[in-house]
Amino acid sequence: MATKEIESNLLCKRLIHHFYSRNHNFCLEPKDIEEMNWDWQKEFLDSTFNSKLIQKYPLSGQFSRLFLKKLIQHLEPHQEVHDDFYAQLCTAMNIINKDGFSYQHYLVENDINNIITIKETRNMVVNGTTGLKTWEFFFQAALMLSDWALAKQEIFSEKNVLELGSGVGFTGITIGKLCDIKSLMFTDCHDDVLKTICENVKINFPDFVQEETQDVTSYKSENKCLSIMKLDWNSVDNLPDNIVPDILIGADIVYDPSILVPLCNVIQTFCKRNSNLVVYIASVIRNEATFASFLKTLDDAQLQYERVEVKKSGYIEWDDCINKCLLKIIEKST
Question: pTM, whole model, 2 decimals?
């Protein structure tokens, strides 16, 4: 492949990455724009706005408008602009995200053929919960945990996993989709959050068969089961006896001092059911005092913890500069 063609492909991949990262702060040099002829534009459009995935699950209208306007402004003085850019701009200007929801798409290993799609709200609070939004800063804990899990897939192989405080379900969906687990149960205490998790599971596992019981919604394939269940940390006595995970996970669930004791009670409950239980909790530390209180609460609950070193593995993009911590927690031996 000629050098010029390689550079053109790299430029296209870079702009595609900006698109899926919802980043319109890209820079284009004159030599870049020179490469962006009609065929280049078509390749870009086919991988983004015209792809089946984006047609079905579009990004927010606001982002799409900003991205398209900037790209068109760069192109117009120097290239014949592909008709579909203008068509997509008209579409974006008319997008009204129903009920305040839109879709985010996360590339795995920067591969447009390997994407996690998440429905989320643009609103800060919906019906009393923030669990329906992927907060740009604090969502880094979910991205970090997902990236780490994909680098340590052997830990999850053939295991029954339960996620605490699943939110939109990103971490559980990523592990469920790409790790060889036996089962994964998403839990949260808000009905609206649980409904959104169900929708996100259906988006990412379209071939799984849905089954309903009184308390649990499950999606099954021949060798994997994903379930969604309501779990109030203050009512663990009502937890069904048949739920016995091998691994607990949680991302950005240590932020409120009032939930630290209930959280540790949940962990203790599952430790009593499985003495070999291992817990992994990823946090963006927003308040040092609250996090220190969590560590003390673990000690008081006879739960042993250690900090796990986390480095970027390149599966999921996240910000390594955040004040972060991944804890491995087990029951203290007597």
Answer: 0.91
Give the whole-angstrom CA distance, residue 230 versus residue 188: 5
> What letter would DSSP give residue 259?
G
Find the domain containing 78 and state its range.
3-96
Q: What string of DSSP letters covers 20-57?
A: HTT-------HHHHHH--HHHHHHHHHHTTTSHHHHHS
- CB-CB contact of 149 with 175 (8 Å): yes
- Cα–Cα distance measured from residue 110 to residue 122, given in angstroms and rounded to the nearest whole number: 24
Cβ–Cβ < 8 Å for 20, 49: no
User: Residue 97's beta-bridge partner residues?
Assistant: none
Three-state secondary-structure class, residue 262: helix
> Are 269 and 137 members of one domain?
yes
Per-residue pLDDT reduced to its tens digit, 115-148:
999 998 755 434 444 444 444 666 899 999 999 9
Let me know if residue 18 belongs to a domain.
Answer: yes
State the helix-helix crossing angle for 38-47 and 83-93, rounded to 10 degrees.
40
Instruction: State the total domains in the chain.
Output: 2
What is the Cα–Cα distance from 36 to 72, expressed in whole angstroms? Answer: 11
- What interhelical angle do 288-300 and 260-273 show, nearest 10? 40
CA distance 199 to 118: 9
Q: What is the largest CA-CA distance in the chain?
A: 74
Tell me, yes or no, whether 105 lies in a domain.
no
Is residue 106 one of the residues assigned to a domain? no
